[in-house]
């Protein structure tokens, strides 16, 4: 009344499954009953036709009346159907099928997981192999190159302040130009930005952590010293020109040091060069220069090779 809808009763899935199972069992039992009735009628017909009507009365198989075999076969069919209804469908019904399916799915999942693990192992092995190959390439590159550090440092290894040199030595600048011209020069971003413009007749390789660092055309930007050395692999003598952190990274793998030692102690320096351990380096050249009209400090050009 007044448009009220009659509530619909809902049957959940479990109840529906129980009903379907019950209906299936009823159908099975009906078929069993029908087969049993057919068995009785058939058995009676066999007996009547043989005893009363005399059909096949004298027919025997292996010395036994044929209708006995007929009844046995009929009984076998009935027994098979009874087992199928009361045993097979009871113990190997839908629940059994679901359980078997779950076991097979579980085994398949385990197999897929094992295959994935094998695939990941193989992938890790390939990646490691590629990494080793790249390392070997870098090592070969190091062996073919004479990686040279070039630097000017004070008596306490000071090399700069506020990203600038603390001194001006024209002969040192000329020497730097003479040695590095025609070569790759590797540097950090701050060192590069201290130049008013890229230095002529040299290929600049700038190491920066900034992924989108913009540099002038012709300047190579990389994210690591290894990549910088790889970029300079065509040069037999690339130069590391600074700054302090790049020197520290390059120090263990460098083959040569071109050091201008400025004989003065500079206060307030904020960038320093690593100390040269003469147990690891051999000095092959030292040229002393003294103060003059254009040079405010004494200085010495040192050349070291790794011992």
Task: Describe how the helices and strands are arranged.
Layout: H1 13-52, E1 60-61, E2 64-65, H2 66-91, H3 94-144, E3 148-153, E4 158-160, H4 170-180, E5 184-188, H5 189-193, E6 203-207, E7 220-222, H6 225-231, E8 239-242, H7 244-250, E9 256-262, E10 271-272, E11 281-289, E12 299-306
Parallel strand pairs: 3-8, 3-9, 5-6, 5-8, 6-7
Antiparallel strand pairs: 1-2, 4-10, 9-12, 11-12
How would you summarize this macromolecular structure in one to three sentences?
The protein contains seven helices and twelve strands. Strand 1 and strand 2 form a beta hairpin.
Structural class determined from secondary elements: alpha/beta
What's the tally of helices? 7
Shape: rod-shaped
Number of strands: 12
Residue ranges: pLDDT <50 for 5 or more in a row?
none
Helix % is 40-55%
How do the strands line up in the largest sheet?
A: 7-6-5-8-3-9-12-11
Number of domains: 2
The CATH architecture of the largest domain comes to 3-Layer(aba) Sandwich
Helix-strand pattern: HEEHHEEHEHEEHEHEEEE
Distance between the termini: 106 Å
Return Rg in Å.
48 Å
- Relevant CATH superfamily of the largest domain: Dihydrofolate Reductase, subunit A
Protein architecture, described:
The chain contains 7 helices and 12 strands. Helices cover 48% and strands 18% of the residues. The protein is rod-shaped. The strands form 3 sheets. Strands 7-6-5-8-3-9-12-11 form an 8-stranded mixed β-sheet, sandwiched between helices. α1 runs antiparallel to α2.
